[in-house]
Design brief:
The complex is a heterodimer. By secondary structure, chain A is of the alpha/beta class. Helices cover 37% and strands 15% of the residues of chain A. Chain A has a single domain (3-286), classed as Thiamin diphosphate (ThDP)-binding fold, Pyr/PP domains (Rossmann fold, 3-Layer(aba) Sandwich), CATH 3.40.50.970. In chain A, strand 9 (235-238) and strand 10 form a beta hairpin. In chain B, helix 1 (7-17) packs across helix 2 and helix 8 crosses helix 9 (215-244). Chain B is an alpha/beta fold. In chain B, helix 7 links the parallel strand 6 and strand 7. A 7-stranded mixed sheet of chain B has the order 3-2-4-5-7-6-13, with helices on both faces. The longest helix of chain B has 30 residues, at 215-244. The chains are: A alpha/beta, B alpha/beta. The interface between A and B is large, with 45 and 43 residues. Strand 2 (60-62) of chain A pairs parallel with strand 9 (205-206) of chain B, so a sheet runs across the interface.
Chain lengths: 294, 389
């Protein structure tokens, strides 16, 4: 689609190379114009809707940080009351903090109540809008402003919260992870999700050049390496059945880490490196990411 | 038709007649009967609405925010900690100019945990931008809900409205209520229509970032609307009277104020007790009266000054306290009276009834005695000295 035809208009103030801006455009363009979006507080909201300008060519609402899922529940309930739900997509979207931390309760409620809403999490692995603080989706050993490495720390001490599994545990019909490094896959998953009635969850991995400290031209390369190393598994869970996207040639995590400032301390610390590799290895086993032996 | 009804049930019946399309609430005592009754009406198809059972008050407020932003009339109800948990959304709803209506079954705030009545919950969100109504009895609780939708959805207003009713005292109290018919309500309250909504035919962005170049004006506009609401409420009250044949939802209401030298100022159900005390004191030859505050935000300063300008002494009865200062209504009333300069009556503040402590007639008499003594900002009435020793 040519840029002029997109529903996410140019002229917003995202950083160069922002993975979230690219993913948000892919999502809304896949959904089409009969879509209402409820957006949480965060980078995306700030860089796209500074009064009196808006990048959104679809009806769009922002209320607060933790309530995108609940606002979307209200929008969807109102559409049902009006008899207009068929033919209108409702999307709730938030960052990793707005989804996995402060917004998790509202999201769980939206899933449990069965609202016909697609929830999209744009995961850039820290609170970027407030200055790169650690979230529940910050990866193991990552250097953020609130999980700095030091003589008593290797950086963030925990692996990422398994959001896709948490979503799937609610028994919702469709859960997927995606990466902005694979744009056609993002589009396909959004279209697929919107063809299914009920609550849907898509978790999109979106590099942040500012917070991850990589060049703005490396967004796609970094995103792809997260997938190719097993650190960000691409999966779909349809009605509880796992469908992994297998990795043809698994790469060592160093290849991913060395492109990013937030992991430079890991490369100098063999123990930390082992810890990060162990996360990738565990993902590969857990989600069956290796192709079956011929 | 006059019926003998529990306050919660009466409010649920009134809300039903307002035809909300989305109702969302989270259980908290003593609000629960209102939403239980509405849930049953939806279950019985007496009311065509989506009833959304949420996982918290924060989400209850967020759901009605989303529904109202989609152009559908919405209702929620809460109390106490629930109102505090939704406080963030409460402020947001007003700033977004969404005419949500909420019943607040007023109740004390933790700690200590206490489920009984006072008005500390609403006091905590008085600055949020909502129109705040206070009901004295169940009839007013019913009528003020009809007023709330009509006022909030007025294109000149577009603000949320909270109807405060004292928890248990009104919500669980049985009174005779003249319940309006559906036809009457339909005549008074037209269907909600607005172009300010999420609509795929006319996409617009709601909930912008307002930077320092715009924020001040956005807040000013909410404040300016509140000034207008002071004029619009009497206008809508007059229309209410035309349809229902009784007064409802004014700014303030005076009782035996004509020649009153000492005036009590109060809001909510305590006004019934004060009225009785006024009658008794009048029998003893004391020239006392009551000024009931029905609309607390916007604060009806001019109406209060007009009613109190002739008084020598004013006692503001608060069922709330700004800890470290005084009762919030006292602070408002005394600030207003202060603008009278030399004509300002001696104004004192009294805190009564926190956490459901009963307010018997003798507490009002005691307030009267203290009022005629030395001026005081914050005197508690009804304390048990043996517990403080």
């Amino acid at each position: 689609m040519a840029q002029t035809e997109t529903l996410f208009k140019p002229g917003h103030t995202a950083c160069a190379g922002c993975g979230q801006a690219i993913a948000a455009r892919l999502v809304v363009d896949a959904a089409g114009k009969n879509t209402i979006i409820a957006n949480a507080t965060g980078c995306l909201e700030v860089f796209s809707t500074k009064y009196p300008q808006s990048a959104w060519a679809v009806p769009w609402i922002h209320s607060l940080f933790e309530n995108a899922a609940a606002v979307a529940s209200g929008v969807e309930s109102a559409l049902r009351h009006l008899g207009k739900k068929d033919g209108i997509n409702v999307i709730a979207q938030a960052g990793d903090g707005g989804t996995a931390d402060i917004g998790l309760q509202a999201l769980s409620g939206m899933f449990e109540r069965g609202h016909d809403v697609l929830y999209v999490c744009y995961d850039n692995e820290a609170y970027m809008n407030t200055g790169i603080q650690r979230s529940g989706l910050t990866p193991m050993d990552s250097n953020t402003t609130t999980s700095p490495p030091g003589s008593a720390s290797r950086g963030n001490p925990r692996p990422k919260k398994p959001m896709a599994d948490i979503a799937a545990a609610h028994g919702i019909p469709y859960v997927a992870t995606a990466s902005v490094g694979y744009p056609q896959d993002v589009t396909r998953k959004v279209k697929k999700a919107l063809s299914i009635k009920g609550p849907k969850y898509i978790h999109v991995h979106v590099p942040c050049p500012l917070g991850w400290r990589h060049g703005p031209g490396q967004t796609f390369a970094v995103a792809k390496l997260a997938v190719e190393t097993g650190l960000f598994p691409l999966i779909e869970i349809e009605n509880g059945v796992l469908k992994p996207h297998t990795i043809a040639q698994v790469k060592p995590v160093e290849e991913y880490l060395k492109l990013q400032g937030r992991f430079q301390h890991v490369l100098k610390d063999p123990e930390a490196l082992k810890q990060v590799q162990a996360v990738a290895d565990a993902n590969i086993r857990k989600y069956n990411l290796k192709p079956a032996e011929a | 038709m006059k019926e003998f009804l529990e306050g919660s049930y009466a409010v649920a019946q009134a809300v039903k007649r307002c035809r909300p399309g989305v109702i969302s609430a989270y259980p908290i005592t003593p609000q629960t009967h209102i939403v239980e009754d509405l849930a049953q009406m939806v279950a019985d198809k007496e009311l065509d609405a989506e009833f959304v059972n949420v996982e918290s008050e924060h989400s209850a407020a967020s759901v009605v925010l989303g529904a109202e932003a989609t152009g559908v009339r919405a209702f929620t109800a809460t109390s106490s900690q629930g109102l505090l948990l939704m406080a963030e959304v409460v402020f947001n709803i007003a700033g977004m100019r969404l005419p949500v209506v909420m019943a607040t079954a007023n109740r004390a705030i933790s700690a200590p945990i206490n489920i009984w009545n006072d008005q500390q919950d609403v006091a905590a969100v008085r600055d949020a931008g909502w129109v705040l109504f206070f009901a004295e009895n169940n009839q007013e609780a019913v009528d003020l809900h009809l007023m709330a939708y009509r006022l909030g959805e007025d294109p000149r207003v577009m603000l949320p409205v909270m109807v405060n009713m004292d928890g248990f005292i009104l919500t669980h109290g049985m009174e005779v209520v003249d319940m309006p018919t559906q036809e009457e309500v339909d005549r008074f309250l037209p269907p909600y229509t607005t172009s300010y909504k999420l609509d795929v035919e006319n996409p617009q962005t709601m909930g912008f970032l307002g930077d320092p170049d715009y924020y001040l004006e956005m807040r000013y506009m909410v404040e300016a609307t509140h000034r207008d609401v002071l004029k619009i409420i009497p206008e809508i009250s007059a229309e209410f009277k035309k349809v229902f044949g009784r007064e409802a939802g004014g700014l303030v209401e005076g009782y035996r104020l004509e020649d009153a030298q000492q005036v009590f100022v109060a809001a909510g159900s305590v006004c019934g007790t004060v009225r009785e005390a006024v009658d008794a004191l009048r029998k003893d030859g004391k020239k006392v009266g009551l000024l009931k505050i029905m609309t607390y935000r916007p604060f009806p300063k001019d109406a209060i000054l007009a009613a109190l300008a002739g008084a020598r002494e004013v006692a503001v009865i608060d069922k709330a306290i700004s800890l470290g200062s005084a009762g919030p209504m006292y602070l408002d009333v005394s600030a207003a009276l202060g603008t009278l300069g030399a004509r300002c009556p001696k104004t004192s503040g009294f805190v009564l009834g926190l956490g459901g402590r009963d307010i018997p007639l003798k507490s009002i008499f005691e307030t009267y005695e203290k009022l005629t003594g030395k001026q005081t900002d914050c005197t508690f009435i009804g304390l048990k000295p043996e517990l403080l020793a």
